[in-house]
Design goal:
InterPro entries: AKR (IPR020471), NAD(P)_OxRdtase_dom_sf (IPR036812), NADP_OxRdtase_dom (IPR023210). By secondary structure, the chain is an alpha/beta fold. It contains eleven helices and 14 strands. It folds into two domains: 11-174, TIM Barrel (Alpha-Beta Barrel), CATH 3.20.20.100; 178-294, NADP-dependent oxidoreductase domain (TIM Barrel, Alpha-Beta Barrel), CATH 3.20.20.100. It is globular, with a radius of gyration of 19 Å.
């Protein structure tokens, strides 16, 4: 699988990466054996970039990912985690009273997530993540969803990531968000290596083309694109499908079905085009896909490697479903 270097750093990622939120029990439980088998399937498919966060299952994703990768050569893979939410232990009586679902994750609430973009919070978060992962360094550290915390994120959290990078505790730094505007500010105003942009450069939403992607290309920064299926609609467009974690409105469902018809007329599955499209932009180093089973991992790898004729993109542009040539 092809690899790309992130910005001016020495860190490399494969063009397909493993999003580990699902093995942190996102929405429903994933058995430990299945979580480990899913990571193994990603490795067997050639994936060497794995992304996690403390938020995912209150540290469960980090613990599972660290355990699954423990027997792999450390220099053979790239791992990212995130800062901005620290995990504070709950007293036993609060844990006992929890209902087994914590902010979308099917885990007992043993800890409370607390927003913390202070320098001390960033350092503590990295130290805690290293402990859960069983590692001595993090390849990529992202500021996690600083949407409502811009001032401390830029004033305290980002400079602390720079210090951690200089110390060699982390290899590359950036921010991960579901919007492009603040990520563009990071690219223009700081020395980030990479940003993770979810859902804003897909077959249904090209809003990152107006700001983030041109800025990243101009400054030699890298973009990892997540949410390529817009949380489900581009994987299986049907009534009741989700778009950005809510039921897709009818106009977007109609557009997704139109996309599917045009793409499949070229003999290509919609999923394959959705995975490949972000990689058509030179600033995009990889796409991140969340998977919860070995079959889902293998399918993602197969779809990404499908041949896609140039005529398919031309057809989508001609029908007004994608921007014109040259983005």
């Amino acid at each position: 699988m092809r690899r790309g270097r992130l910005g001016g750093s020495a860190v490399e990622i494969t063009e397909l990466s493993f999003g580990a939120a699902a093995i942190g029990n996102l929405f429903s439980e994933v058995e430990p054996e299945r979580a480990a088998a899913t990571v193994d399937a990603a490795w067997d498919a050639g994936i060497r970039y794995f992304d996690t966060a403390p938020h995912y299952g209150l540290g469960l994703s980090e613990r599972r990912l660290g355990e699954a990768l423990r027997h792999r050569p450390r220099d053979a893979y790239t791992l990212s985690t995130k800062v901005g939410r620290v995990l504070d232990p709950l007293p036993p009586e609060e844990t006992a009273a929890s209902d087994g679902l914590s902010e979308g994750f099917a885990v007992r609430a043993t800890h409370r997530r607390r927003w913390d973009f202070s320098a001390a919070g960033v350092r503590r978060s990295i130290e805690d993540s290293l402990d859960r992962l069983g590692l001595d360094r993090i390849d990529i550290a992202y500021l996690h969803d600083p949407d409502d915390h811009a001032e401390p994120a830029f004033r305290e959290a980002y400079p602390e990531l720079e210090r951690l990078r200089a110390e060699g505790v982390v290899g590359a730094i950036g921010a991960g968000m579901n919007q492009s505007a603040m990520l563009t500010r990071f690219v223009r105003d700081t020395d980030v290596d990479v940003v993770l942009c979810a859902g804003r450069f897909t077959l249904l939403d090209q809003s990152a083309l107006t700001d983030l992607l041109p800025a990243a290309a101009a400054r030699g920064r890298s973009v990892v694109v997540g949410g390529v299926f817009n949380s489900g609609l581009l994987a299986d467009p049907r009534p009741g499908a989700t778009y950005d974690y809510a039921t897709a409105p009818l106009n977007l469902l109609d557009r997704a079905l139109h996309l599917k018809g045009v793409i499949e007329a070229h003999g290509v599955p919609l999923r394959a085009a959705a995975l490949r499209y972000p990689l058509t932009h030179p600033a995009v180093a990889g796409v991140l896909v969340g998977t919860r089973s070995p079959d889902e991992v293998r399918d993602a790898a197969v779809q990404l490697n499908r041949e896609i004729p140039d005529a398919l993109w031309d057809d989508l542009r001609d029908q007004g479903l994608l921007p014109g040539n040259g983005h």
